[in-house]
């Protein structure tokens, strides 16, 4: 078997090259031609926009399949003969045109070097062009690289896999527990890129969902959604995490289901056009296309806007107003849970189109409902804007409604100016609230002797007199 | 309180020790680490110069998901500190709806110090003091300094 002479310049050059690129694989087993192969990772600085034939959405890929470079050095290299470079990509995402250009550049470089060793220069050039994805998308239409459908899945998977490997290798300081954590123990929030450790996110989100505070299931970073201006900031809503992303952190399926259900329920309950099933054991919402039932949370990928305000309470059209009590309109609705067909107006099981019926409020309360209502009256203060019952667990009496973000006084229900919420407690004119900002700071149930004004005060007073009347009656009976 | 929260408080204490704020001393009790006693000197460039203030920072059980609670134990004439026996503060990142878990005690201490140097009368808890500050600065400075002598020496 023939061997390379000890002073073969090609062998020298390739061995030297290998010490610079350890991943270079040499093949000296087939004299007289030495070959070498290297896989060059392609991770452009600016993600490469690609689009597939059947799917018109553009995706930005940060990690692409490597460029495979085969180097073949014939006898006479470098002085007399040019080296041969074979460039391929697997899967073949690079257009032939681009590959040809890159190979031509190899030849041009050899000429430029005038018969000197040029492999390192060529590899450096390729590495450099890899940072712009070889300009593959530059000449394409709209600067987006078009790919055949067959490449879609492998390329997306690879992009995700390499991205995750890189992320897992890194170390991140979790802003919550303040500990450095390996990427594998962390989660990057999809829409803003902030990184926290999984344990902290689980802690926080689990608790939010347990307490029904779903509007806080969003990125925890202080600079997220910040614009500098506090007022704008309040209006600009951060994005809530999608159920799908929560499952990736991961949160338990049951918790994520609850999250999706609470969000849906909140939307339904703030929509005045929705009525509920009259069967006491059911009370499901009427079937509607507006709020589809949740089937598979793992497919719920939308990270919707925080639903603070009731979804722009759809205006009741003249027609709708008219039909309250009028026949011949769409009174028939169906319960989404028990499939009962009932009348939207009188809330009785469906009576047919020709029955005249009157509007009935859902006021016949069960015992439990009455108990809940009593509790709500006793332990909450209604928001002056949206009337949602707010209860204070702790803190000062300047409240911000958890549903519509109205600033109000917990004691008397007065609106407070967001820019100066404390003036109310410092004004002697407000007799009931003057200097009572911190009354009951340990929460509502901590002590029962807080005096309230406004709606709640009236309820308190009514309750007091009711008990007083009972006491007097008892006394009279006793006497 | 979870062990995670305790660890975080310890870590934050260490951070405050490694990079101490001028004029701020923290009395930390390992047995009761959810209550920090802070001794803060009135900053030189402020009307509170020469005063020594005792503050308390209480960490709720849900820390760091809920903000720490700050109160001045030493009486101070300041628009952002309530003029009662609680001496409470409730502004900026100390508000529950504004607090974010990555915020730290050190930023709370910075906030307090900066407020001593420059009160924020537009977010005042004591409106009359804020009014004083805005419309009658000389009177405000006088009263504030007077209170330093009376309560904060």
UniProtKB/TrEMBL annotation, chain A:
Residue intervals of the RWD domain: 12-133
Gene3D superfamilies named in the record: 1.20.120.1750, Ubiquitin Conjugating Enzyme, Zinc/RING finger domain, C3HC4 (zinc finger)
Transmembrane feature ranges: none
Keyword Zinc-finger attached: yes
Pathway: Protein modification; protein ubiquitination
GO terms assigned for molecular function: ubiquitin protein ligase activity; zinc ion binding
GO BP: protein ubiquitination
Enzyme class label: transferase
Keywords: Metal-binding, Repeat, Transferase, Ubl conjugation pathway, Zinc, Zinc-finger
Domain RING-type: 170-437, 174-208
EC number(s) stated in the UniProt entry for this protein: 2.3.2.31
Keyword Cell membrane: no
Catalysis: reaction(s): [E2 ubiquitin-conjugating enzyme]-S-ubiquitinyl-L-cysteine + [acceptor protein]-L-lysine = [E2 ubiquitin-conjugating enzyme]-L-cysteine + [acceptor protein]-N(6)-ubiquitinyl-L-lysine
Database matches in Pfam families: IBR, IBR_1, RWD
Matching PANTHER family: RBR FAMILY RING FINGER AND IBR DOMAIN-CONTAINING (PTHR11685)
Similarity comment: family membership: Belongs to the RBR family. RNF14 subfamily.
Protein name: RBR-type E3 ubiquitin transferase
Automatic annotation (TrEMBL), chain B:
Domain UBC core: 4-153
Keywords on record: ATP-binding, Nucleotide-binding, Transferase, Ubl conjugation pathway
Domain of life: Eukaryota
Enzyme Commission number(s) of this protein: 2.3.2.23
Enzyme class: transferase
Recorded GO MF terms: ATP binding; ubiquitin conjugating enzyme activity
Residues in coiled coil: none
Keyword Transferase: yes
Name listed for the protein in its UniProt record: E2 ubiquitin-conjugating enzyme
């Amino acid at each position: 078997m023939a061997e390379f002479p000890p002073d073969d310049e090609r062998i020298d050059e390739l061995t030297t090259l290998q010490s610079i690129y350890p991943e270079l694989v040499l093949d000296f087993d087939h004299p007289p031609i030495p070959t070498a192969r290297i896989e060059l990772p392609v991770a452009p600085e600016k993600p490469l926009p690609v689009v597939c034939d059947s799917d018109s959405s553009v995706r930005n890929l940060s990690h692409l399949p490597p460029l495979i470079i085969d180097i073949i050095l014939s006898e006479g290299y470098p002085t007399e003969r040019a080296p041969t470079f074979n460039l391929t990509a697997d899967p073949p995402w690079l257009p032939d045109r681009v590959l040809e250009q890159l190979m031509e550049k190899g030849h041009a470089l050899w000429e430029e070097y005038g018969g000197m060793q040029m492999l390192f220069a060529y590899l450096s050039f390729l590495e450099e062009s890899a940072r712009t994805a070889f300009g593959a998308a530059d000449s394409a239409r709209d600067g987006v690289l078009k790919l055949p459908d067959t490449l879609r899945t492998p390329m997306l998977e690879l992009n995700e896999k390499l991205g995750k490997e890189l992320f897992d290798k890194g170390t991140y300081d979790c802003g919550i527990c303040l500990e450095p954590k390996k990427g594998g123990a962390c989660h990057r929030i999809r829409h803003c890129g902030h990184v926290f450790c999984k344990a902290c996110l689980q802690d926080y989100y689990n608790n939010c969902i347990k307490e029904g505070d779903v509007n806080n299931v969003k990125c925890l970073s202080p600079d997220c959604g910040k614009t500098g201006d506090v007022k704008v900031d309040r209006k600009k809503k951060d994005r809530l995490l999608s159920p799908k992303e929560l499952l990736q952190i991961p949160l338990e399926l049951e918790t994520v289901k609850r999250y999706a259900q609470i969000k849906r329920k909140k939307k339904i309950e703030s929509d005045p056009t929705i009525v509920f099933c009259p069967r006491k054991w059911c009370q499901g919402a009427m079937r509607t296309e507006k709020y589809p039932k949740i089937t598979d949370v793992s497919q719920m990928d939308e990270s919707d806007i925080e639903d603070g305000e009731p979804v722009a309470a759809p205006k009741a059209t003249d027609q709708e107003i008219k039909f309250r009590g009028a026949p011949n309109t769409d009174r028939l609705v169906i319960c989404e849970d028990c499939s009962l067909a009932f009348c939207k107006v009188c809330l009785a099981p469906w009576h047919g189109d020709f029955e005249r019926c009157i509007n009935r409020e859902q006021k016949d309360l069960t015992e439990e409902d009455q108990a809940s209502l009593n509790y709500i009256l006793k332990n909450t203060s209604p928001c002056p804007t949206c009337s949602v019952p707010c209860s204070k667990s702790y803190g000062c009496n300047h409240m911000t409604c958890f549903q519509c973000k109205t600033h109000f006084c917990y004691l008397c229900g007065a609106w407070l100016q967001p820019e100066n919420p404390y003036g109310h407690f410092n004004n002697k004119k407000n007799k009931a609230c003057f200097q009572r900002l911190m009354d009951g700071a340990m929460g509502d149930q901590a002590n029962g002797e807080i005096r309230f004004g406004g709606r709640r005060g009236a309820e308190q007073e009514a309750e007091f007199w009711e008990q007083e009347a009972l006491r007097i009656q008892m006394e009279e009976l006793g006497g | 309180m979870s062990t995670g929260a305790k660890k975080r408080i310890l870590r934050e204490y260490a951070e405050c020790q490694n990079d101490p704020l001028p004029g701020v001393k923290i009395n930390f009790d390992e047995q009761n680490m959810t209550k920090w006693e802070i001794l803060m000197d009135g900053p030189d460039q402020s009307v509170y110069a020469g005063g020594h203030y005792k503050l308390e920072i209480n960490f709720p059980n849900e820390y760091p998901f809920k903000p720490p609670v700050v109160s001045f134990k030493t009486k101070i004439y300041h628009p952002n500190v309530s003029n009662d026996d609680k001496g409470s503060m409730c502004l900026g990142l100390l508000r529950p709806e504004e607090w974010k878990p990555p915020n730290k005690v050190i930023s709370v201490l910075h906030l307090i110090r900066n407020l001593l140097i420059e009160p924020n009368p537009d977010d005042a808890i004591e409106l009359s003091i804020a009014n004083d500050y805005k419309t009658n600065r000389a009177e405000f400075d006088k009263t504030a300094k007077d209170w330093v002598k009376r309560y904060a020496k």
